Amino acid sequence: xxxxxxxxxxxxxxxxxxxxxxxxxxxxxxxxxxxxxxxxxxxxxxxxxxxxxxxxxxxxxxxxxxxxxxxxxxxxxxxxxxxxxxxxxxxxxxxxxxxxxxxxxxxxxxxxxxxxxxxxxxxxxxxxxxxxxxxxxxxxxxxxxxxxxxxxxxxxxxxxxxxxxxxxxxxxxxxxxxxxxxxxxxxxxxxxxxxxxxxxx
Length: 201
Fold this sequence. Notes:
By secondary structure, this protein is mainly α. The protein has one domain (9-176). 80% of the residues lie in helices and 0% in strands. It contains eight helices and no strands.
């Protein structure tokens, strides 16, 4: 149990670090390329040792792949590392839960994309809009699906906790990236203003 509670947030943080390095350019791409295969090894091992974990993590991979989120070399290297290792060592899956979780994962990714595109049109003073933003920004569909399966005894409850840790580690790195981006923008603005003499006496 404790291994999964540690491994899942590392996986979530690693994915967002790679995203931020390539999409927002707030972290080192070279470091992201080093992290990617290591993340793939951890991901594959975390699938290999437990069929429930394998089912959940494969659903995550399929969800991001189907919705086009494997969009840089580092993520591709990580995904190839995962499947390369699993082809060698094999993995046990729960096939009916897998279908349910893949559907939930795809719903999360599509909902997250839609919220990103329509967020400026949503009224956060309305409960339904605020709920939709929080639900899909934090990708709760998959977590709710895991919680349902935990209640009916298909998966241990600690995997629900592990997925919460996964997502909030991801969000924590996103916040760090946003702060770094904001600081870079402020520094750039100050530098530009200094160049034209605004800060020069």
